[in-house]
Write a structure and sequence with these properties.
This protein folds into two domains: 1-158, no CATH class; 177-258, no CATH class. It has eight helices and two strands, in the order H-E-H-H-E-H-H-H-H-H. By secondary structure, it is an all-alpha fold. Helix 1 packs across helix 2 (71-102), helix 2 (71-102) runs antiparallel to helix 3 and helix 3 (108-148) packs across helix 4 (158-175). It has a two-stranded parallel ribbon. The longest helix has 41 residues, at 19-59. The chain has helices spanning 19-59, 71-102, 108-148, 158-175, 178-187, 193-198, 200-214, 221-257; strands at residues 66-67, 156-157.
Length: 258
């Protein structure tokens, strides 16, 4: 039997690759991405110790020490940092290879959608991570440490410190996807801005609950800061895209009249 995965109408340029061809191409692209990420990881490992020292200088008061509970913790933490760095650096390649694999089966409009949305999402994520690193992690960590130094001299555990920094970077980067998500939902008419406005208190409560559950910080400071940032982006987004939709509706009505 000659099974075709792409033997259907409406996809220009799709030559109807067989299942085996798809699997071979997928495996080839996966191995290429894996090899590049592995090389970047190996290159990043020697500098991961310097990155830890830089994060300590940026986020921790000079009189506070970071300790490792055992030698293995240091190695594992450096590997984790190297892998994370390799995924960030290799993200454009991962995005490109994913698009190249899916491209033959996509309509032209879907290709334009992917090319427009995915890079924007990546840029927003990196922007959120950069803002988190520059303006949030340092003041927040120093405030938490300062609250405990009046009675004790705290020692930071290396793995937990890196987990906290990673949590902040990833969470804030993800929160910066909010404008893009709301734009897509409104543009595709899946939800109305009025619905998002009416349900925002429930959404804020859910956001706070999720952040609290996964928060490595035992205090409520981190969830409050992250939720506040989420609320700000959410409110700006629903107002902006509600105005945009109103403009689109007015324009369409004028077009019909003419």
């Amino acid at each position: 039997m000659n099974n075709k995965l792409a033997e259907y109408d409406g996809v220009p340029g799709d030559r109807g690759m067989e299942l085996e061809e798809h699997l071979i191409e997928l495996g080839r692209r996966f191995l290429w991405v894996f090899a590049i990420v592995a090389v970047i990881t190996l290159a990043a490992y020697p500098i991961s110790g310097k990155l830890i020292a830089q994060m300590k200088a940026d986020f921790v008061p000079p009189n506070i020490n970071i300790i490792a509970l055992n030698p293995v913790e240091v190695v594992f933490t450096q590997i984790k940092i190297a892998i994370t760095l390799s995924l960030i650096v290799g993200a454009p390649l991962i995005v490109y290879e994913t698009f190249a694999f899916m491209r033959p089966g996509l309509y032209p409009s879907e290709r334009r959608f992917y090319v427009g949305i995915v890079p924007a999402s990546l840029v927003l994520f990196l922007l959120g991570g950069a803002i988190s690193y520059r303006f949030l992690i340092g003041p927040l960590s120093k405030a938490l440490i300062g609250a405990s130094t009046s009675t004790t001299t705290p020692l930071l555990v290396l793995s937990r410190f890196i987990d906290f920094v990673s949590f902040m970077l990833v969470t804030v980067g993800t929160i910066f996807q909010v404008p893009l998500v709301i734009h897509l939902l409104v543009k595709m008419e899946l939800v109305e801005p009025t619905f998002l406005r009416e349900k925002r208190r429930i959404i804020y409560a859910l956001m706070f609950g999720v952040v609290t559950i996964f928060n490595p910080d035992p205090t409520m400071a981190t969830p409050l800061v992250i939720t506040a940032g989420f609320i700000l982006l959410y409110e700006v987004s629903i107002r902006l895209f509600a105005r945009e939709k109103k403009t689109d509706v007015t324009w369409n009505e004028k077009e019909k009249d003419t």
